[in-house]
Amino acid sequence: MTSYEVYVDGEFIGDVVLTKEKPEDIPSYLTKEGYKDFQFQIEGNKIFINTINRQLSEKMRNHLEIYLNIK
């Protein structure tokens, strides 16, 4: 069980503790949800996701908050 800080386009969206998921599961989830053209990077306990535009960024943040149960 590892805790991560999650950022989308440089904006901190919350802390998450992954119990069943691995960080590498996140890009697969986003792709399955129809997201393309994003970059995913893990640096220590931080997860960085970068998108191509602001509208995509906002939608992605909403999906991730639900998927990761970020509070």
Automatic annotation (TrEMBL):
It comes from the Bacteria. This is PEGA domain-containing protein.
